[in-house]
Amino acid sequence: MSSTSPDFLSKTLSRVKPSPTIAVSNLAADLKAAGKDVIGLGAGEPDFDTPESIKEAGIAAINAGKTKYTSVDGIIELKQAICAKLERDNALSYAPDQVTVGTGGKQILYNALMATLNPGDEVIIPAPYWVSYPDMVLLAGGTPVPVAAGIETGFKMTPEQLEAAITPKTKWLIFNSPSNPTGAGYSASELKGLTDVLLRHPHVWVMTDDMYEHLVFDDFKFATPAEVEPALYERTLTCNGVSKAYAMTGWRIGYAAGPKPLIAAMRKIQSQSTSNPCSVSQWAAVEALNGPQEFLASNNEIFVRRRNLVVEMLNAAEGITCPKPEGAFYVYPDISGCLGKTTPAGTTIENDEQFATALLEETGVAVVFGAAFGLSPNFRVSYATSDDNLKEACTRIQNFCAALS
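Now predict its structure.
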């Protein structure tokens, strides 16, 4: 038998689909390599550089020889900084042995699922969702249960929907606010409606993805489940990281705080996979959490300007409705008014994947189609790029929609 035979590969892989965003990314790269003028609106990372004080902390760590193995799930100094951050920002009290640090937020979520899921366990995931949630659940042997939260509810799951989705097999709710891909944020009162439901179902745990916590706009106030409902403290894993707000995507540091037995189980998983996160990145993350925070507000001013520009221009496009999100750096426009129409090149738009593909091929604008995030017909735009790029891209989208017949 050839080692490349499908029989050689794990049957677990059959439960997981390749990332639907890869096809669009590959096509965009191919077109760019062929000389086409492509504007990418798919990147899920800030275009800002990592702040100087954080970079200097990383350099200082290198110069001080802090380049050896560390404790499996993080140095004590970083765990202490995380505890201080959670107390300061979220009114949550944790000790260092209730904290785990991983190689990015994704590893934290994956460790938790691998440490807790058994075959048949269900995980409720509001849709639209970050593309990796369902597949991580599947890899860990669980069953994802998407709950569609459409434009009519502001892309937010209602308490009634959560109640209806819970079964005796439900183990986790994965909760992301502000959201990737919609930017929708749950207010404290909206969150209280969900936590009231969870109080009635003590077998359901909550895994929060608070990665966009500091990227909130206008008068929106961020809240996290264990803060809103302290009675959920013992069955909440509060997950976060430095990637987005601190422009540290490549440094790969995520973290979580929760009950000691769960943290210990996650540490065991990590001890037999990656072991410790990068030592230099950990020291940089200490500075990120303990150091100056003023740049967060100035960065958000830029994001607000970009958000407003994109929302206004996309709402001016024929057939598109674009809600104004509370946070993150994404918008998630609805393209219902474009379906059934034909592009000048002869492509009939029957779904959002065809829309995104035609948009890229005919205008050079790369977006991610909504089916990748579990809710159609939509597409995701990341406005973490320059104003000029956004204006040009939105103008091309307007022209593309106007040319549909």
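The two ends are 53 Å apart (CA to CA).
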